[in-house]
């Protein structure tokens, strides 16, 4: 663990004494065999295991994009209550945070690949429950939020640990670019197909079909995950490290604040924009078209950023991305309709990679910055996710409070601007990391 000041270690710093060196060699041998941590000049290619992990990620993203975009619409159509959608999202984030913290022991000491598979399998259970509850799903938002939170916690904890192990500083931006590209590709085609199916079939039939397809894709994701190598478990899980680290380690406390700021925006914008598109159009096909256009833009942007972005450019890239994400909200003060929402979506598609890729890559480089951090990678990844979810919970709670007090469009716009400005705070805290 880093010392209690705010000095960040250089990327890739190695151990200084022999005992630490042996520990570092043991810890990173598997990654070096895959090419993840092998020192190279320039940018390293992706390994076979990293490509397989991207495949699992792509299937998970496709299944969620196929139905996840429309789950909130499905709940909205049943109740027409923004607060209910907020509570569903809040329960999801709280449960995801608890799952990250408790499942850390499973990933650290036992089989992290089974945790990854469990996340995909529980996601299939979630959509099975939506199928089972049908039009009564809004009455069971608490159960659905819990199940979806457990699924997300299992999957993203294991995914992030394996991601750290199969990538290194020389290919991490490339991996993140491909992950964003696959996510954008899924977000481009899947909701568009779903929207067409829902509109052309009787609405309930269309929803049941896309939820069923999602279950099948999740099952395929579980099958593909068995081609990933079982990864060695090292050490004992330290339940208290995330909390101790935030109190005593100035560097991680700073990063934790940046991650919480990042999470505030994600907690609200992750569901609100798609829901606003449906509310203002009343048509699932138009929501699908919105996702098609904005995700196509994001796909190209992620492709370019993944290829061109270098660690030395992260600080300025993240600042440009953060500023533009905030400016994209301004058109809402003119009028909220499909056009202004589309302008927002296209702008976010262009500039989010400049903000998101440096944020993710830098935090994981910090985890791998010295042998002690890398040895406790599971705990640091749990810390990362707890900080993100703390921000998501705060942002969602503010949203619930606001929509419970007023339905004023002006108040909603100011709320979105306030929460949507959090990327600037994230950049402010992360600027010292990029400066190293």
TrEMBL record:
Q: Which UniProt keywords apply?
A: Membrane, Transmembrane, Transmembrane helix
Give the source's domain of life in one word: Bacteria
InterPro entries (UniProt xref): MFS, MFS_trans_sf, Sugar_transport-like
Give the region (Disordered) as residue ranges: 1-21
Identify its membrane topology class. Multi-pass membrane protein
- Keyword field contains Membrane: yes
Q: Name its cellular compartments.
A: Cell membrane
**A family per Pfam:** MFS_1
User: Which residue ranges run through the membrane?
Assistant: 52-76, 82-103, 115-134, 140-163, 175-199, 205-228, 257-278, 290-309, 316-334, 340-366, 411-430
PANTHER family, sorted: INTEGRAL MEMBRANE TRANSPORT PROTEIN-RELATED, MAJOR FACILITATOR SUPERFAMILY (MFS) PROFILE DOMAIN-CONTAINING PROTEIN
- Name of this protein: MFS transporter
